[in-house]
Amino acid sequence: MAYKKKYLPLFLGVAIAAGIFIGGKLNFSDSSDKLFSKNSKKDKLNRLIDYIDYDYVDNVNTDSIVDVTVNGILENLDPHSVYIPKSEMQSVNENMKGDFVGIGVSFYTYRDSITVIRAIEGGPSAKAGIKGGDRIIMANGDTLFGSRLNDGELIKKLKGPLNSKVNLKVFRKGEPKLLDFTVKRSNIPIRSVDAVYMLTDKLGYIKVNRFAESTYKEFKTGLDKLLALGAKEIALDLRDNPGGFLGIAEQIVDEFLEDNKLILFTKNRRGNIEKNYATSKGDFEKGKIYVLINENSASASEIVAGALQDNDRGTIVGRRSYGKGLVQREMDLGDGSAVRLTVSRYYTPTGRSIQRPYTNGNKDYYDEYFERLDSGELLDPDKIKVADSLKYKTPKGKIVYGGGGIIPDVFVPIDSGMQNETLTYLQRRGFIGYFVFEELEKDRKKYKGISRQDFIDNFEVSEAMIYDFQEYLNLRTESKLTFVAYHDQVKQYLKATLADQLYGTGAFEEVFNKHDIMIEEVIELSNKKK
């Protein structure tokens, strides 16, 4: 089963958790003077939790108090030191690992039942014969329909040990009775490479959505595919990529940098410096490389962009990146929960830190996007604030700046047409996906003979479909929407979502990129003569 999820570090927290365990051994007759004069700050918090646990007038879930306390401590450190509760650890780990054990379907909870959007190509459900539009009614005798079941409960019923079997009963439109399938659960990838294809006869394209354990392997497979197709240049799309494992980012940079080129260095509180260099194993050390970034490209994405920019390797295209230059380490708290604690800062090869300030608190830190929007920075590169004290030079003399993100070599303004608030809202809330699914349910057969490439190149969304979508929204939202102002953009979203549900990995991006102004800029740069 594949489902989309879009995520996140201790010294006092360990003592807090330990305090719950040893609470019964404490002597509550101790005076407060004796208690606090002899014990450390950690013991003070331990004792408070135990007082509440044993003597507070009402029953209190001290686990929740510990969670609040740990979060309170971390909020006073930096915006990227975070607590991961036990209840979230599995999904966080799966996302960063890059796979999970399941049956291999993308689905909606649609009209109180699991409805398959698409069986993942090569996965166990596809091999068993499950198709888009099928409704999974039962699993091993348990019913999977009804308003009382939430997505989490449904997912649990479909997950299970690796290679275990699950017997499914499926309703398929047009079939007189329920169909029986036996599906063997297997490792299902959570893809971090969204698309790999050729933009032109010489320019290959790879979009990476995060840096998980499996990302380098996916990336390398994609790069090899593009090289086999004749790619002489690569566009690496890191827009909206929030980051992930630093080591994975280093491996990807290594594909583009020559042996012994500095990728980055880190420095901890004790001043210890660790430098990371490229090796001789890179497969694309000579061809042109374009890195696409925007205001949501963070952390590991900025490591890639900064390493290439500071080594005068490639062209960074887009808008100023997020500005996260802190490194976290995940630390176990002993009860199934963990913290990701900031343990060092990283610096690009020229020595610049791209971490933006967070001294005014987390709210101001996370609201900086709106400051960039209000200042006009997303439309005009001259509005980007830089400090001369944070000016650095690359080996070839190019000026770069630290202090808050990677500033691109070639600026591309935000596309207010394709990225307007209404369409973004409709996409994120699932309205577009649900509508497209219902459209397919009306008659899937009419798309059966259309090849993926033919659909991408030639299919046109009808005016009737746009009108139907407008009516669909007006029945489900309080606002009465019209698409006069962005008619063409709605067509693009609908077509891209249709492609995604019909053809799977990469189809959405291939459709959407045809009218993407940043992609158009990269193609123009590629076509320019030296």
Automatic annotation (TrEMBL):
The chain crosses the membrane at residues 7-28. Residues 89-144 form the PDZ domain. Keywords: Hydrolase, Membrane, Protease, Serine protease, Transmembrane, Transmembrane helix. It holds the Pfam family Peptidase_S41. InterPro entries: ClpP/crotonase-like_dom_sf (IPR029045), PDZ (IPR001478), PDZ_sf (IPR036034), Peptidase_S41A (IPR004447), Tail-specific_protease (IPR005151). SMART domains: PDZ, TSPc. Belongs to the peptidase S41A family. This is S41 family peptidase. It comes from Mariniflexile aquimaris. The lineage of its organism: Bacteria, Pseudomonadati, Bacteroidota, Flavobacteriia, Flavobacteriales.
